[in-house]
Amino acid sequence: xxxxxxxxxxxxxxxxxxxxxxxxxxxxxxxxxxxxxxxxxxxxxxxxxxxxxxxxxxxxxxxxxxxxxxxxxxxxxxxxxxxxxxxxxxxxxxxxxxxxxxxxxxxxxxxxxxxxxxxxxxxxxxxxxxxxxxxxxxxxxxxxxxxxxxxxxxxxxxxxxxxxxxxxxxxxxxxxxxxxxxxxxxxxxxxxxxxxxxxxxxxx
Amino acid sequence: xxxxxxxxxxxxxxxxxxxxxxxxxxxxxxxxxxxxxxxxxxxxxxxxxxxxxxxxxxxxxxxxxxxxxxxxxxxxxxxxxxxxxxxxxxxxxxxxxxxxxxxxxxxxxxxxxxxxxxxxxxxxxxxxxxxxxxxxxxxxxxxxxxxxxxxxxxx
Lengths: 204, 155
Description:
The complex is a heterodimer of chains A (204) and B (155).
Chain A: E1 10-17, E2 20-26, E3 36-42, H1 44-49, E4 55-56, E5 67-69, E6 81-88, E7 91-92, E8 96-97, E9 114-119, E10 122-127, E11 134-142, E12 150-154, E13 161-165, E14 171-180, E15 185-186, E16 193-196
Antiparallel strand pairs in A: 1-2, 2-5, 3-4, 3-6, 6-7, 6-8, 9-10, 10-13, 11-12, 11-14, 14-15, 14-16
Chain B: E1 4-6, E2 9-11, H1 16-32, H2 44-47, H3 52-80, H4 84-100, H5 110-129, H6 132-141, H7 143-151
Antiparallel strand pairs in B: 1-2
Protein name (chain B): Interleukin family protein
Organism (chain B): Catagonus wagneri
GO molecular function (chain B): cytokine activity
């Protein structure tokens, strides 16, 4: 009856960067056989009020690889319990449960990739498309003593955005960071990128 | 970023669009089970003209009832109708909202909290007048009415 003869997957862990969450584990090795895995999850509400209820993961019930993209399953900023088991034919392992529940507010937020370009005298930025959860705060300034920094909120990424009409001969710099509303956190700022405009600089 | 502002109560870390998407995924299945079409639990007169000050008390009572009564007793149906994913998204986000609501308890707020309580009791009364299973099904299906009302406080 498919008793649990397969070893349970070990070393479960979650890698989460920019709100993309991947559960990984050590593969169960059976020579010349393909082992499949099933992943299930529980939000905090289920674990508190209906702990017997586990929900099959969107993409990994079953899956062949020793990892699972659980991004679409983590839809609240609460601790999630996750478990995995192995299956080979009629053989099924015991469940292995992630030691510490995962909360998406622990995701690593990286400075956004960006392209700063000139379109004639127009300063244009195109930010990395990180998905609907992300807003971008863009800071830009004219590189001169005492320059004032301007801030613009941009959403979504992936679309060129006009920042400023520049003066001939001047240099303008830009940096950006992300904000994720669902977890109320910012990334660090990216490195500043500067562009210089052709032509004679105007007298101040 | 956007947040819920129920009067003095602020709630960050919930993306309303995620809740809507979860409800839309299960709406047809859930509302198809509601055969008592002549009754509405979250009636207009309960939801209209809720003052900012009242809104924190009212949403706290509503979400507490939804989490402790409706979700807790609806989960078997959620398994049966294969809507656990949406169920989980809504339950966990409602739990986040509730955990961040801090309705003030000072005496001068008594009349406001009483107004909110009367509204909630109208809803609860209508719920209790129905057969238990029918009431759970209707209340679960009326979450679009609840989300629409909550949306007014999402700024």
